[in-house]
Specification:
The chain has about 130 residues and is an all-alpha fold. It contains 6 helices and no strands. It has one domain.
């Protein structure tokens, strides 16, 4: 069975910017390098429509900014926008996207050994809040 993707290029860019941006935010907040790698693997391992969009080779992911705040200004609204557009066009993919991003963020936060970085924990909560704001 093949999936027909009728999202616009801008919609696909929003989804990719949101998902990969969430992992980038975790890195900027101080998540361990190994965790970031695991988070990225989660994104490339997604299935369904979300998996097809995230796995596509593209140069449309926009993550400007020289600070965590500037990066968050781009990524957090993109997460909310991605959830909204999927809710309107592909409601069956909303849970897939949210679940994929949440697992990627958890993986990026790193293994549960000892005390975690408070900044990373706060950023994970902000990502989840942005996903739930739609």
């Amino acid at each position: 069975m093949s999936i027909t993707i009728t999202l616009t290029d801008q919609d696909k860019s929003t989804l990719r910017t949101a998902a990969y941006g969430a992992v980038s935010l975790m890195a900027a907040a101080g998540a361990p390098h190994k965790g970031i790698t695991h988070g990225s693997v989660v994104l490339t391992s997604a299935t369904g429509l979300v998996g097809h969009v995230l796995a596509a080779k593209s140069k449309d992911i926009r993550l400007p900014g020289k600070s965590v705040a500037e990066l968050a200004d781009e990524v957090l609204p993109a997460l909310t926008a991605a959830m909204s557009l999927l809710g309107k066009q592909y409601p069956e993919e909303v849970d897939n996207f949210r679940g994929t991003v949440v697992v990627a963020v958890e993986a990026a936060a790193g293994p549960g050994k000892g005390e975690s970085n408070p900044a990373v924990a706060v950023m994970a909560r902000k990502v989840t809040a942005a996903l739930d704001a739609a």
